[in-house]
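ok, trying the design again with the full structure, not the truncated one.
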């Protein structure tokens, strides 16, 4: 699937201040697409000077097609200002966002982090891509589960542990969300991607896609099947996350775009589906970190 190149250019200060891609009338919801990397910076969020990143362009294009405005930003100071103008937040971030980043983008303050979580709990949506779970890690041993997790991890519903080499692997769908939004079979879904392994899953997760680990290569995947895409409620806010999105070609994949558009639409409250917790049923050993 080819993505039509978007003509948007960022102003020189856009790295710090963000850029708005307007898509129409004032009634359209606005999403803040936040891509600050205090840890590893993925190529899909890296900007070349004033150019929007690869994923910026895809998000803007999806918004134009499906009716939402996108503000792409890396400036953590935005969260110290009023968040009332945003209907939802989409994160492709990494590391402790209150700490410095190599690109010089201003950090989020502790108060800004609290404001983000409070606004989601009050009813704003949240969409996380790939390394959004590699953000604000819980204190303690990296390769062990924690009894008490970071408040951001509690919101998003799971925490990145590690990943192996990029490889082709399979997923299967276990949710009515999939059947409503994706026009293809729910089994036999196979992609080449960088696959994350997780810990500290929330007990109230509604799992959408399951990672099948049996034939995967690497110690990271020597464990039972685990959630790969999920949804949950954080207070009144709708939270959607998928670990997909590391590769540029994944962002152009029609399956990924349909999945992302469905997650965004649900987070914006455009449709409902039964998100009863199913993590213990469909992935009963999700928190087992090794076989």
């Amino acid at each position: 699937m080819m993505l039509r190149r978007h003509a948007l250019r960022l102003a020189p200060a856009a790295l710090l201040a963000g850029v708005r891609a307007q898509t129409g009338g004032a009634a359209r919801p606005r999403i803040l697409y936040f891509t600050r990397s205090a840890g590893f910076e993925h190529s899909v969020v890296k900007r070349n000077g004033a150019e929007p990143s690869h994923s910026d362009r895809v998000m803007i294009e999806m918004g134009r097609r499906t009716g939402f405005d996108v503000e792409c930003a890396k400036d953590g100071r935005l969260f110290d200002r009023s968040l009332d103008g945003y209907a939802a937040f989409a994160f492709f971030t990494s590391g402790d966002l209150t700490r410095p980043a190599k690109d010089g983008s201003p950090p989020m303050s502790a108060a800004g982090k609290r404001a983000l979580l409070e606004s989601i709990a009050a009813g704003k949506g949240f969409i996380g891509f790939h390394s959004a779970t590699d953000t604000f890690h819980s204190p303690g041993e990296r390769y062990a589960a924690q009894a008490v997790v970071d408040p951001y991890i509690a919101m998003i519903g799971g925490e990145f542990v590690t990943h192996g080499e990029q490889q082709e692997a399979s997923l299967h769908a276990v949710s009515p969300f999939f059947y409503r939004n994706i026009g293809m079979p729910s089994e036999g879904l196979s992609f080449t991607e960088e696959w994350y392994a997780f810990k500290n899953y929330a007990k109230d997760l509604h799992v959408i896609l399951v990672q099948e680990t049996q034939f995967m290569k690497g110690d990271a995947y020597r464990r039972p099947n685990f959630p790969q895409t999920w949804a949950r409620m954080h207070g009144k806010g709708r939270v959607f996350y998928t670990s997909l999105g590391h590769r540029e070609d994944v962002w152009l994949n029609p399956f990924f775009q349909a999945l992302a558009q469905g997650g965004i639409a649900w987070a914006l409250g455009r449709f409902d589906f039964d998100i009863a917790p199913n993590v213990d049923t469909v992935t009963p050993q999700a928190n087992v970190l090794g076989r």
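Keeping the full-length input from now on. Confidence is low (pLDDT under 50) at residues 1-25.
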